[in-house]
Amino acid sequence: MIIVVVTCHNNAAVARLASRNKISLIVLDMSQDLDEFVKREIATGHLPDRNAVIEHALRLMKRDREEASMGIEAGLRDADNGRIQPLDDAFDDLRHDFGIADPE
Question: pTM value?
C-alpha cells in the first residue's frame, strides 16, 4: 500500500489521479499557520521532512489518547474498589494541595 500525504487545494483532482493509479491517498489540506509551523520544524532541523512532522504529531495524539484511556480505566477501577470520596472533600484536598484558600 502506498500512502501519499499532500498539501494542496485541488483535492478532487488529486483524488482522481490517485484512484486511477490505485494509490491509497491521504490528502492533507492544512491551514496556513500549521503549514508554516511544519516548514519551521523542518528548517530548524527538529524533524527531517513533512512526513516525519506528521508522523510525530500522530504518535503524540496516539500517546495522549492511550494515556487518557488508562486514566479513565484506573478511575473506574478505583470506583469499583470503593476508592472514592465526596466531591466537596476532593475539592478541599485540591485546594490544600495547591495552596488555594477555601471560598467560604
Answer: 0.61
Place of cell 492544512: 30
* Tally of domains in the chain: 1
**19 half-sphere exposure, CB direction, 13 A CA radius:** 6
- Specify whether the CB–CB gap between 2 and 24 falls below 8 A: yes
Q: Decide if 7 contacts 30 (C-beta within 8 A).
A: yes
Rounded CA gap, 27 and 8, in Å? Answer: 8
Q: What is the pLDDT of residues 44-102, one digit of tens each?
A: 999 999 889 989 999 999 999 999 999 999 999 999 999 999 999 999 999 999 999 98
- Domain assignment present for residue 77? The answer is yes
59 lies in which domain range? 3-81
Residue 33 lies in a domain: yes
Which residues are CB-neighbours of 50 under 8 A, at least 6 positions away? 5, 7, 38, 42
